[in-house]
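Sample 3 of the quickstart, ligand uracil:
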Amino acid sequence: MRAVDIIIKKRDQQELSREEIEFFVNGFTSGEFPDYQASAFAMAIMLNGMSPQETTDLTLAMAHSGQMLDLSDVVDLAVDKHSSGGVGDKTSLAVLPIVAACGLPVGKMSGRGLGFSGGTLDKLESIPGYRVDLTTEAFKKQLKDKGVVLAGQSLDLAPADGKLYSLRDVTGTVPSIPLIASSIMCKKLAAGAQAVVLDVKTGLGAFMETLDDARVLADLMTDIGKLAGREVVALLSDMNQPLGHAVGNSLEVVEAIDTLKDGGPEDFREHCLHVCAHMLVLGKLASDLEEGRTKAKNAIAEGSALEKFRVLVQAQGGDVSFVDDPTKFPRAKFVEVVKAPRHGSISQVNARGVGEAAVTLGAGRAKKSDLVDHAVGFIVHTKVGDQVDEGAPLFTIHANDEKKLAEARQAVLAAHSFSEGVVKPLPLFYS
Ligand code: URA
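Result:
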């Protein structure tokens, strides 16, 4: 077997066998097959798709490309969550400490930014000293001792996905249902999750723009999970507009900390409470969603969720004083409030436009080796359905480069649409 023949087969729209998929994933993981062949393989999948069987085989091959974590000696029931990616989606930063504070230990492997969509690891690394590269032993020990872990894939879990993920980010091969499904589910399987809440985003700022596509992705991931003997709940959530107000790494960390301090934007808080409620039900710490939600709310109100976040940051080497005093996060050189050019109801805040503008500012990567600027991004002040007066603050830009600031101003202004009439707010969840 040769790597090129497998690429050609997929290019020519033929179905790959389990052996071929395993051969390719193993060769790529070991470094025998170069990045350019993996990129071509990803593009062939992106353009021609994969059958459910191929996707399951790809998921299992990537999950087995490294160690398969068994957490049964550390936690009674390993519950995990994963988002399919979005703009302003800092959910894990709040949800993990909340559910951990409710008594559900949770260790999660997160990813970096992907295309216009932010990544939890990039966000966490805006906290000075925070280490995402834990060994498997350190991951398990922290989960046992502290009840919460939020780390990256450098530990030997699903290394094939870690490598492919960074190539997809810069080769236009992100929005593919089989690639997303296998990427998410291989990490969940390798990390030892017995039950998973999947937050599948749909809309302009999601990889799945239509509800139908999001449903296909959700069903596929649920099926893969079930096939592997895991319990899976998939939520379909809105990603037409950014979640919360903050978009950009340290700005999002600050918003998550505000939320853990019982503040934060209403939509983000509600979104987190819903995800927490599902995780607590799966973890058998709540008998229904209402009880899960109440427990999660109490953990925020009593301060135990914030304390868990401090524990997490400290355990991973981060400077906790930034959690206690978020004004310590470095501020970008230029901070500009952009005002509404007219009055009216906000009918659209195009999340993709905002996410792409954030990448332009340096919050994400244009190529694999790019460094992320943690300070830049936006605070988007309004939501779809809000009434604004001409001259009211529409969004605030945090930039470190004047030229990029000007580009971002144009792009984010263009992402906003106004209407004369009344506009209904967008739902948080579709299903
Ligand atoms: N999140 C992942 O982990 N992988 C993807 O491909 C998209 C979102």
